[in-house]
Amino acid sequence: MKQSISNYQLANMASPFPTKGPLYNLSGKYKDLSFNQVHENDEARIVILNEPSLPQWMGSIHPNGSLYEEPLDLSKAKEEHKLFRELLEKEGCTVFTVREILTGSYDQTKSEDIQHRVKLEDFAFNSMHYELDSQQNVQELSTEDKLLISDQYKKKCIECMSNEQLVEVILTRPTIRLRKSERDTELLSTEYSFKPLVNLIFQRDQQITTAAGIVLASLSSPIRAPEVQVMKLCFEILGLPIVGEIPEPGKLEGGDFYPVGRDLSLIGVGLRSNFYSVQYMMENDLFGTTRVAVVKDYFDQNQQRMHLDTVCNIIDERVMLILEDICGEDSPIRRLVDEYTRDDEGNYHLTRNDVEYSQYLKEEGFDLIYASNQNQKDYGCNGLNIGNGKFIVVDRATAKTIARSTKTNSQLLFVDFRTVTKMYGSVHCCSQVVSRFDRPRPGGSLQHSPSSDKLSPQIIRRNSRDSSSGSGSDQDEDGSDKFLMISPTDFVKDRIGMNASLIRQQRQLILQDYSKLHKLLVDAGVRVHLFCHEPYHRTDKAVFVADWFSTHDRDEIKSTEKNTLVLYPLSNQSRRRERRADILKFGFLPKYTRVLDFTPCEQGKLEYNETTIEQFIKDSSSLDESSSPSINGDDGYFIDFSEIVLDREHRLAYCSTKNDRQSKFIDLWASALGYKVIKINSKEAANKFIFIGSKFALFCPNALSSKEQSEEVIQALQTTSAKKVIEITEEQMNNSCAKIIQVKGNQKTHLLMSDKVMNSFTSNQLTELKSYVDQLLHADMSNLENMGAHNDGMISMLGRLV
């Protein structure tokens, strides 16, 4: 059974805290000293900073290349940072800087501490490199020359350096290139290069301090990645326990985390942090809270709003300062929340999904104070709550907005940080609070407190899931449809030589289109469970999620009492990778307790496995692309769900069969699901020329070479499927007019298509379509379509959960 790490447990670990020195002595200054954060509003006790120095000077030489926002005057930045530290200390915080920790100057005993010196030397040794000049032939080097570029010589140099010198090596990470010298010394330096830790001033990101303790992060930017190991060394020197470390391909940056009590943590995912890291933390109970609210940035992913702490901040116990532009269902850059709850066995389960963020906060009892777009740009949201009713702000306009609010009595402490913010961060980014006083809170989280008067009884907790049983339907009580969707966060692939600004611009435009589509569905009452895909997934077409699975309820498949998930055999390796464990676990469980796994067909076996999602995930070979090698198309049985168009009411499948192997597969599939099949000999996928709605069907006769077969299909649609057939032309077929989708929401039936598709229908056809549904829904998907999505159509973007 998994358990969270309590303060009591931490205090009784073998060596959780220093047993001597300044940190140990602080136990006399602070009552119940612990190294964790339970709530952002608790009293801040120990804060780690990193003052601007030589690495930041190096960064200022080319600010943009160093992830800075603007050029800056380093002298002014140093002065501002100094005043920030003085303010923290004046308010009772104990402050250590990275330089003080590494040099040992924070503790007089460290100057004679051999163990400290060894740690510093070893780290500096690995931070400094000697290389031969590219023009120097190694064969020309004498034995003495080789000694001068050896580790032995480097070790000698390191041992002669002062602690201050070693710290400069660690922070600037130099490489020296050398060649033989014609005169003077044996070797001559031809180039000094550095990889300075230009962003180490932003102490928030290399780790998060949760209710469980300090967790080392994994930074998204390659130039920032080494910062984590520097902070690991700092914590080791301080003697602070590290309870966990995020492994690759996890990405986590501290600006995406807020602690909100023993009951709840807020964690952002999107541009800089990913769900892999969140799942890892939940599986290892590194949050230390009952619930985890994952705030998904799947429509924006803008550098200006890169972290959760750039768009919101906890300024009082239950008061959130939040960027107004991200709030509400109508916002094109809204955030959505998935909530996970820990059971008695220590396992987290998805209990709510895709709740708009500001609505979620209100349901949690938060009062919201809205920051303007200009406030956000001026780092108004990136203040620092130091507890005791005090909030440090860097933007006067934002401070006035807070002061005019009647929702908080927090004292606002202003610090001028206008130069430091040019490096793309403010006081929250620049500080890491590793210890706050865990103030007792009666009743825990507000919404669980019977005595709380913060919540109106009229508030409805939206998008809740019943995780106690797998027998429920993935529909609302009014019969609204539910779909699994993948936001195209990695649809535009980086290519060498492609303009990086153009890549960013295209991603933004595509996400804007997708945000409109999502809003259109939600407004229509359709339920959506939204995931994303990332570069490490290597699934550039994941947005077309409906191709690799289908779902069937127990009423549709009469031979079972279970809801069924069907997995299809795919020929493309990248498409196979779309069958991700996190989607299977959190997208389909607990509703789908039976899996028909046809993936053995990818290896040339005409068979399927009846299994469960848990077993499929446990069987690593099912998710390992190497276990399903690319084999000759003549040997495998490949088909995706787009090849099959279902008439679920009559359990009839219209299927394209390009060859005999596909024909054999569809026979196996039909037998397993209890369907009758109408096989169509066509090179096109069936959903390109056939669409079946509740009362009508679309069909392109010219898609088939045989007039007789076209007539057979029409006859089947009219009689067996009992649909009114609307014929479309070959041009309309090529414009994806059959790749529309019928959805139900708010007790109404809707027909969903893109603007481009809608404009391809004639006025008479549109009139007829409107007669069969309550409403035609259409969205401008031109940016996505222009990037290659047009051929896949709307129907491939919505994975139906029946």
TrEMBL record:
<protein>
    <recommendedName>
        <fullName>Arginine deiminase</fullName>
    </recommendedName>
</protein>
<feature type="compositionally biased region" description="Polar residues">
    <location>
        <begin position="446"/>
        <end position="455"/>
    </location>
</feature>
<dbReference type="Pfam" id="PF19420">
    <property type="entry name" value="DDAH_eukar"/>
</dbReference>
<dbReference type="GO" id="GO:0005856">
    <property type="term" value="C:cytoskeleton"/>
</dbReference>
<dbReference type="InterPro" id="IPR014541">
    <property type="entry name" value="Amdntrnsf_FN0238"/>
</dbReference>
<dbReference type="Pfam" id="PF02274">
    <property type="entry name" value="ADI"/>
</dbReference>
<feature type="region of interest" description="Disordered">
    <location>
        <begin position="440"/>
        <end position="483"/>
    </location>
</feature>
